[in-house]
Design goal:
By secondary structure, the protein is of the alpha+beta class. The protein is built from 14 helices and 32 strands. The strands form 6 sheets. Strands 14-16-17-18-19-20-21-22-23-26-27-28-29-30-31-32 form a 16-stranded antiparallel barrel. It has a 5-stranded mixed beta sheet with strand order 10-11-9-13-12, covered by helices on one side. A hairpin with an 8-residue loop joins strand 16 and strand 17. Helix 2 runs antiparallel to helix 6 and helix 12 crosses helix 13. It is globular. The relative contact order is 0.05.
Length: 769
């Protein structure tokens, strides 16, 4: 205790010494260190209501972050390490450790002369005027400290009554364009009496130009429209006239149709070219031609003779890129000065073929203070153009190894858990939906049909060998830019125990419900997954991800066999098959904090599975578990739950029991930058799994309202992430706070025996969620 007290006092003394260091030592004479905003007063005139959008726009130029911000621009951290390094570690020599240390840590001071409060008040006034608050006033003043070497800024904004639109007139055009202009005026957001808004005026010009370009006016731009304003007719009222800019080229004001379409295909290696005519284009391809003509014809949305639209142009380029076989796709349209009175636009598409072969390697390592380790590797070989139509064949080999070294809990014995898993999975992705054409036309382009075959071997040398064979077919498509659908038409899995040990057989005899989850069985199932993924805000500073999946197994087969007169238990190829329904809902929300790359990430996951009819329990592979690098990081995989149940300490295969029918998990993670590509995170994880049916062999495992909150495991911790562009290497240290099972050695909510026993280290690839 005395040693800890002395260390604490020494640390406090060091912090106080650092706090006394000057942060203005190297600031030039006459300059003032900016330390943030003290007050930002917004004072609307009587009866004036300031919109939230206008307030945010006015605050933004005034909210400049000072050095070492904690909550910019109001609060700073007490330890400005960057400023200390800038003041005390400077060296004119551009080499050596001191220079490297200075370059890494030093932060140039933010000065009042660089912030320019007077200029920023003018920018804030301009932002208010953009929302119609003409005549507002803004002022600033400095609050000096440290004999005038530091200062905070006070801002005051006085908000005048807003202006509104008066009469509004739209352009007059020729007989071809005028009907489009009239229809746009009827749906315009510009209405007499609506508050003036510069963003609305800009958006309306963009809307008109986009509509015209979607109707063949390819060369029309928003700049070809101008607003003429009159503020003299009524007080605080703006009469607007939207007009075409003078002296526009006649070519801008006429619609065009698609002319000749030429596609040039270049291979990675030199070769002769050949010309081929397809229905919608002329193809000049380097031999051998590595794309089927039918595929090109299907992807070309620009069709000769039809109106030339920007949407068709963009769709053509997007579809060719999404095929995944081109390194680059460039599209060129006839220049405006080359039309010479023509009414059609020729298009040339130049596509460079990419290498069809790819190799990817992923790794994952987890560790915990109880000596569990679980590294895993996944090697994926891909061919992205198997049949010259963007068909992708993936061959994935995955393996993981898990062991536990001897420790005090095992009496110093050798490993009790020593296992590995191997899997070989092959999938074929076709870049189209194998459905009737009239169905496909109702969906967004870009659907995929997938076929899969695989085999996985789970080896627990002291317990069992289990092999699982699987095959499936399904679709993936979009109904909107944010809505994705995955439909598994059919999936058949066969689980078979190849070998069991006497210890495992004894465990199964003592736990009938677990034994049923391991039996040889078929799992015929269908499934559907809906995913909503959208970013919000002008800078994409918010993102919502919501995924819901529903799987049912055995119902259709059970109904067919029931009609045939076979009653429960029903069998397929002399093996009983599973019958259950399983649903999972996961919501993730990301919010950027401030203007830097700091994010608050949250996740909530709820899953439930129910076996019935032909099954009493779900297969072991379909049951829920918790813990690990992407879950509650203070605990390893399958080391918590179900409920408050805990296998006996001397039960070497107790981990088999730690799965459930219901899962709840919640995570909160604050992600922030540290230095360069190195980022940090603070996290809080909570959750557990439960049984829906009571099991006498696992007391406390059932879901009950009276013990629900106490059954939730809780962990916190911190981590480091190193971003090397194409992947993120992640290291997390989890700290256990609460286990759902009681601990006789430690009562209360914090029931971890010791701080060391509650630590879990994980090394992984990518973010946890």
């Amino acid at each position: 205790m005395k040693t800890i007290l002395n260390s604490t006092l020494a640390a406090l003394a060091g912090l106080l010494l650092l706090a006394g260091c000057s942060t203005t030592r190297r600031i030039p004479e006459g300059e003032v260190l900016y330390t943030g905003v003290k007050h930002l007063r917004i004072l609307p005139d009587s009866g004036v209501v300031l919109t939230s959008a206008a307030e945010d726009a006015a605050r933004e130029p005034l909210s400049v972050a000072p050095n070492n911000p904690l909550y910019a621009p109001w609060v700073r951290t007490p330890f400005p390490i960057g400023l200390w390094a800038w003041n005390y570690c400077y060296t004119p020599r551009e080499k050596g450790f001191k220079y490297w240390f200075y370059r890494r840590l030093a932060k140039e001071p933010v000065l009042i002369s660089k912030v320019q409060p007077g200029l920023r008040t003018k920018v804030a006034l301009q932002a208010l005027e953009n929302f119609g608050y003409f005549g507002s006033q803004a002022s600033d003043s400095l609050r000096y400290r440290k004999r005038g070497r530091k200062a905070k800024v006070d801002y005051t904004l006085r908000i005048a009554p807003p202006w509104h639109y008066g009469e509004i007139a739209y352009p007059k055009a020729d007989s071809t364009m005028q009907p489009l202009i009239d229809s746009l005026q009827h749906t315009s957001p510009l209405r007499p009496g609506v508050q003036y808004n510069l963003d609305t005026l800009t958006a309306e010009r963009q809307r008109i130009a986009s509509t015209l370009r979607a109707n063949g006016y390819y060369y029309f731009r928003p700049d070809y429209l101008e607003y003429l304003a009159d503020t003299t007719l009524h007080p605080r009222s703006v009469a607007l006239r939207l007009a075409l800019t003078p002296n526009l080229p006649q070519a801008v004001l006429r619609p065009y149709r698609v002319g000749d379409v030429t596609v040039r295909l270049h291979n990675r290696r030199p070769g002769p070219f050949d010309t081929l005519r397809i229905r919608r284009a002329t193809v000049i391809a380097q031999q051998p031609m590595k794309v089927r003509p039918r595929v090109l014809n299907r992807l070309l949305r620009l069709r000769p003779g039809e109106l030339f639209t920007v949407e068709a142009q963009n769709q053509t380029q997007t579809e060719l890129n999404k095929l995944g076989i081109f390194r680059s796709v460039n599209l060129a349209v006839t220049p405006l000065d080359s039309l010479r009175g023509g009414d059609s636009l020729d298009v040339e598409i130049i596509a460079q073929m990419d290498s069809p072969l790819e190799v990817a390697l992923e790794t994952d390592v987890t560790s915990k203070s109880n000596s569990f380790l679980g590294p895993g590797l996944t090697l994926t070989l891909s061919h992205n153009n198997l049949f010259r139509g963007g068909e992708r064949l993936d061959v994935k080999l995955n393996g993981s190894y898990e062991w536990q070294t001897g420790n005090k809990n095992s009496g110093g014995r050798s490993s009790r858990l020593n296992s590995y898993e191997l899997g070989l999975n092959t999938s074929l992705h076709l870049p189209r939906l194998l459905l009737p054409a009239r169905w496909v036309r109702r969906l967004r382009p870009g659907g995929t049909t997938t076929f899969q075959l695989g085999a996985d071997l789970m080896n627990r040398p002291q317990f069992f060998h289990l092999v699982a064979f699987s095959g499936s077919a399904g679709y993936r498509f979009q109904s909107s830019p944010y809505s994705h659908h995955d439909l598994t038409l059919f999936r058949l899995t066969y689980n078979r125990l190849l070998h069991t040990t006497a210890s495992f057989d004894q465990t199964m005899a003592e736990n009938p419900s677990i034994a049923m989850s391991f039996r040889n069985q078929f799992v015929p199932s269908i499934g559907y997954t809906y995913t909503f993924d959208r970013s919000y805000g002008q800078t994409g500073d918010r993102r919502l991800y919501w995924q819901n999946s529903l799987t049912e197994a055995g119902n259709l087969l059970s109904a067919i066999l029931g009609v045939a007169g076979e009653h429960h238990p029903q069998r397929l190829f002399d093996n009983q098959f599973s019958q259950f329904v399983k649903a999972v809902s996961e919501v993730k929300f990301y919010r950027r904090l401030g203007q830097r790359n700091n994010w608050l990430a949250t996740r909530l996951l709820v899953g439930v599975g129910y076996a019935y009819g032909n099954s009493e329990v779900m297969p072991y592979s379909e049951q829920f578990y918790i813990g690990g690098a992407n879950s509650i990081r203070a605990f390893t995989v399958r080391s918590i739950g179900p409920g408050s149940y805990r296998p006996p300490v001397d039960d070497s295969d107790g981990y088999l029991d730690q799965t459930g029918d219901f899962k709840l998990e919640a995570n909160v993670e604050l992600r922030f930058g540290i230095m360069g590509r190195l980022n940090g995170a603070l996290f809080l994880d909570a959750g557990n799994v439960w049984l829906l049916k009571a099991d006498p062999n696992r007391p406390g495992a059932a879901l009950r309202g009276s013990t629900f909150f106490n059954d939730i495991a809780l962990g916190t911790g911190f981590g480091l992430r190193y971003d090397i562009s194409y992947l993120v290497i992640r290291a997390d240290l989890g700290i256990g706070l609460h286990t759902p099972y009681p601990n006789p050695d430690k009562r209360g909510y914090y029931n971890i025996s010791s701080f060391k026993d509650g630590l879990g280290f994980h090394l992984a690839i990518g973010y946890p969620f």
